[in-house]
């Protein structure tokens, strides 16, 4: 039996992109015990994978804002104690940053990660007892899967399997009729698809009798969702919800259409047909990727038209 600590602190999409590697490891090493150190705001995500034994949450983002507060010191001490109480056969840092190594070194066991030419911050590789070359210009999922396969010396499975379990949650506010999810919010303005295109797309779904559900994460995103929903018949702006509820929402959708955002990756991980719209980043390295229907449209500097997105959605949507 192997006892492993996985270090991937953030972000949402990158945490989700590490899930197939967890499935690979669990299949290659029966009886695997895997713990995961992750930012507190994302700790719900690893809990969705049945192979993850224990979550060790950290709050680095919050601690940096108030480094001298008593709460920060108490939480940091608790995290350090949790990391140090279990000996690990291997600590696998798939993030390759100085901050991820900082937490990896608190645990007991040899540390492995990408070599200095492959890590995002080459300095991090100096802390690894074992390091491996990983070609950078490939999808993030494949980078993590290949790193884990080298670290544990198993052949890479052909299929991508996120392995996530659907949360046992009932969303009483959902529409009775079939619905699609429109993920209109993203982290940077240059990644946003124009609101009028969202409206035109949503109106086409409404014409088919499909309800449009629009999630959001902050007040600005909520206002955007409300503007778009107002122009689409019977569209629904979702209430604010935790990530496990969002996973349930996405899992039951007929299709999900979203910009470059972590929730689009979560839709792919829940095996829901998903179309991801790219305007300011490279889908070849960061797009949605799954063994189920997952299509990327657009690319850096090119905004796809409504027809292109519609055709991709119709090709993959559930009946």
From TrEMBL:
State its Enzyme Commission number(s).
Answer: 2.4.99.23
Q: Where in the cell is it found?
A: Cell inner membrane
Q: Which SUPFAM superfamilies does the record match to this protein?
A: UDP-Glycosyltransferase/glycogen phosphorylase
Report which reactions are catalysed by this protein.
an alpha-Kdo-(2->4)-alpha-Kdo-(2->6)-lipid A + ADP-L-glycero-beta-D-manno-heptose = an L-alpha-D-Hep-(1->5)-[alpha-Kdo-(2->4)]-alpha-Kdo-(2->6)-lipid A + ADP + H(+)
GO MF annotations in UniProt: ADP-heptose-lipopolysaccharide heptosyltransferase activity
GO biological process terms, semicolon-separated: lipopolysaccharide core region biosynthetic process
Q: What InterPro entries has UniProt attached to this entry?
A: Glyco_trans_9 (IPR002201), LipoPS_heptosylTferase-I (IPR011908), LPS_LOS_Heptosyltrfase (IPR051199)
Pathway participation: Bacterial outer membrane biogenesis; LPS core biosynthesis
**Which family, according to the similarity comment?**
Belongs to the glycosyltransferase 9 family.
Q: What is this protein called?
A: Lipopolysaccharide heptosyltransferase 1
- Which organism was this protein described from? Silvimonas terrae
């Amino acid at each position: 039996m192997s006892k492993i600590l996985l270090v991937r602190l953030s972000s949402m999409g990158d945490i989700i992109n590490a899930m197939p590697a967890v499935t690979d490891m669990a299949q290659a090493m029966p009886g695997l015990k895997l713990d995961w150190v992750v930012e507190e705001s994302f700790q719900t995500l690893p809990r969705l994978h049945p192979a993850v034994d224990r979550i060790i949450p950290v709050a680095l983002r919050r601690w940096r804002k108030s480094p001298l507060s008593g709460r920060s010191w108490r939480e940091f001490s608790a995290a350090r104690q949790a990391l140090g109480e279990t000996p690990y056969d291997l600590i696998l840092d798939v993030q390759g940053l100085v901050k991820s190594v900082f937490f990896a070194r608190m645990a007991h066991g040899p540390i492995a990660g990408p070599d200095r030419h492959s890590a995002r911050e080459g300095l991090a590789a100096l802390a690894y007892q074992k390091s491996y070359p990983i070609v950078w210009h490939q999808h993030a999922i494949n980078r993590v899967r290949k790193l884990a396969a080298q670290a544990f010396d198993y052949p890479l499975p052909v299929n991508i399997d996120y392995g996530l379990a659907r949360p046992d949650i009932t969303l009483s506010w959902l529409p009775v009729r079939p619905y699609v999810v429109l993920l209109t919010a993203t982290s940077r303005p240059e990644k946003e698809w124009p609101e009028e295109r969202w409206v035109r797309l949503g109106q086409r779904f409404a014409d088919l009798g499909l309800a449009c559900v629009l999630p959001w994460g902050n007040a600005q995103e909520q206002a955007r969702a409300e503007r778009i929903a107002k122009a689409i018949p019977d569209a629904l702006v979702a209430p604010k919800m935790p990530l496990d509820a969002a996973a349930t929402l996405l899992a039951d959708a007929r299709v999900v259409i979203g910009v470059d955002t972590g929730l689009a990756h979560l839709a792919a991980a829940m095996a829901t047909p998903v179309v991801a719209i790219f305007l300011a980043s490279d889908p070849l390295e960061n797009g949605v990727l799954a063994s189920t229907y997952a299509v990327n449209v657009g690319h850096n500097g090119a905004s796809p038209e409504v027809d292109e997105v519609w055709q991709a959605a119709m090709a993959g949507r559930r009946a």
